[in-house]
Here is the input.
Amino acid sequence: MPVSENEFQAQEPQGGAPSSVRVLIADDQELVREGLAVLLDTQPDIEVVGQAADGRQAIQETARLNPDVVLMDVRMPVCDGIEATRAITAAGPTRVIVLTTFDLDAYVYAALRAGASGFLLKESSAQSLGDAVRIVATGEALLAPSVTRRLLAEFARQDRPAPSGEKPADLTTRETEVLVLIARGLSNAEIAREMSISEQTVKTHVGRILDKLQLRDRTQAAIYAYETRLVNPR
Here is the structure.
């Protein structure tokens, strides 16, 4: 089923969206690339500036064209989408949405670890795809709830030590509480209700957490919380 806009869990914008979002499409199947380009071309504020047939070409074209967002297939020859995502996000501000037909835990986890800002299936509707591109272009992160559940299941499956219970040295107690709730998949509104504070205060805490821990978005914050054993997904 297509992923609806309301299913996305997004981080607060770090800046305004550009007037026209520049997108690069990376997929080894030409028909898929052309189909995605047609879908995005129906969106008046999105411009497809280039295409790539494999991961290495995606890296090269990103460096040449400097797109705002790359739609990245996972399974590609020469260099797969995970490695390409890692190289692109490490090199500059371009953000990556991993787009695949394979709804598998390993790909979700690997893509997010590599720095992807979102994960969508290729069957997503044109509107959902356009919304995803806009969300990520403004500096946010998006993740369908079903993907969040699989991500937590992946951590639960791993043989990991019990949570340490220690707060990160750079965070205040309040910020640590917010980080734990982010890792549990709560939205800003839900965190505000849980902690009896305003949603704007939550946004301020989230921004400080990302800044102090030098993380790209709240998805990376959730991964940080699990990998540092601050929380346990079980």
Q: What stands out?
A: Residues 1-18 have pLDDT under 50 and may be disordered. The first strand starts at residue 21 and ends at 26. Strands lie at 21-26, 46-52, 69-72, 95-100, 118-121. The first helix runs from residue 30 to 41.
